[in-house]
Amino acid sequence: MEPITAMQLKNIPALKEVPVEQLQWFIDQSEERLVPEGGLLFKTGDPINTTMVVINGKVRISATLNGHYREIAELNDDSITGWLPFSRAKAAIGNGTCIKDTRVLACAAEKLKANIEQHYELTEALVHIMTSRVREATSSLQQNEKMMALGKLSAGLAHELNNPVAAITRSTAALQKNIRNIPGIFKEMAAIQLTQEQTTVIVDELLRIQAGKPVKPLSLMDFSDKETAIQDWLESKNIDQIETGEALAEYGLEINDLEIFSKQLPHEHLPVIFNWIQSALVANRMIGDLQLSAKRISDLVGAVKRYTYMDQEPDKQFIDIHDGIRNTLAMLDYKIRKGNIEVVEKYDATLPKVKALPGELNQVWTNLIDNAIDAIEVNKKGRLEITTDYDRQCVHVSITDDGSGIPEEIRSRVFEPFFTTKEMGKGTGLGLDVVTQIVQRHRGSVKLLSEPGKTIFKISFPIENN
């Protein structure tokens, strides 16, 4: 096997600006490793104390996260991995399995650290690799956190959408049944040969009944009493139609309203007439239910579009912070109601607008509000308070929950990446780290105040952004 040369390393794009002398020094200080297919170049937990250049081969880095196998990265010819200047990584986060015979040049980190000043261009190249890695990791982290945020919202959103969809399905089935009965009802109405005056009475009363439907539904007790009274009246007129009594009670009719039909129309025709009225009222109710359900779906879609800022420019823009908070609360509404949580919003209507990426700020509100909901959840009920205000320098948003609080011994760690107190599968430990990164990118700050029974996250953005 031919020895590795400095020119061979110089052909690697990341090292092309490094002088040959420095690359030769790197080779002289390194050891060559040959790892066969299926072998491990490194394993989870191994200390990161060497810089490795993959001369040729292929290495798959994988790990088990939350009980699931996950591929993290793949190293190919000319890849550079391991220790890099300014890296805080101490140990390998996964196994590096060679999926073909792999040849690696490995240089101890201590040797590189001791000769940084003598090999400036080599150090600069390694730092550039490090910054690229940070950029890629940050982008991946943000994408993963977006997916986590989406996951937090999707279950509640699916439930919220399922309710109006189920109502639409029920209403269309009932309306279809009603439409199938129209020919028979028409035949019965035609057979009784009503006069023009009688037809006018029926139509006018029907329109009055429809227009007079109570805006607020009757209580269960009031509805039951009214339905019983109407059913008794119908039976006294030999009208044996339970569904008719229910429909008339829903529209809030009194016995005096029914007497109008009894006084102006032949008694023997009342069963046919009330059957027709019942059919019209049910159809009207079904259409109303369809309209309400369709509006609910439209409102939910609108909330999603506002939350994600679809149809808007992806650049920073002057925004009212309250809009994003309200949209986030709308997206988390199902979880809030499920947790029996009272939401108190205390907003300063004169709050200055902030120049920001609205989608990123929504990630902040989602993480903080979702964490507050989880903290309250253990108590089966609680209170979530969101307050906004400002002073001469900053706009402030405070999110307060009355959960159990954050123990003093871990408060200093809650913003660390991958630190979480949630059970496996419920959290990645990335949420507050991402919150911090987003807020800092907007030149803001995040502060935590916690005591037993109370936790406050205070987010501040400088007004000078405006």
From TrEMBL:
Gene3D superfamilies: 1.10.287.130, Histidine kinase-like ATPase, C-terminal domain (3.30.565.10), Jelly Rolls (2.60.120.10). The keyword Ribosomal protein does not apply. CDD domains: CAP_ED, HisKA. Its EC number is 2.7.13.3. GO terms for molecular function: phosphorelay sensor kinase activity. Keywords: Kinase, Phosphoprotein, Transferase. The keyword Lipoprotein does not apply. Residues 293-465 form the Histidine kinase domain. It is an enzyme of class 2 (transferase). It comes from the Bacteria. Residues 14-82 form the Cyclic nucleotide-binding domain. It catalyses: ATP + protein L-histidine = ADP + protein N-phospho-L-histidine. This is histidine kinase. It comes from Chitinophaga niastensis. The lineage of its organism: Bacteria, Pseudomonadati, Bacteroidota, Chitinophagia, Chitinophagales.
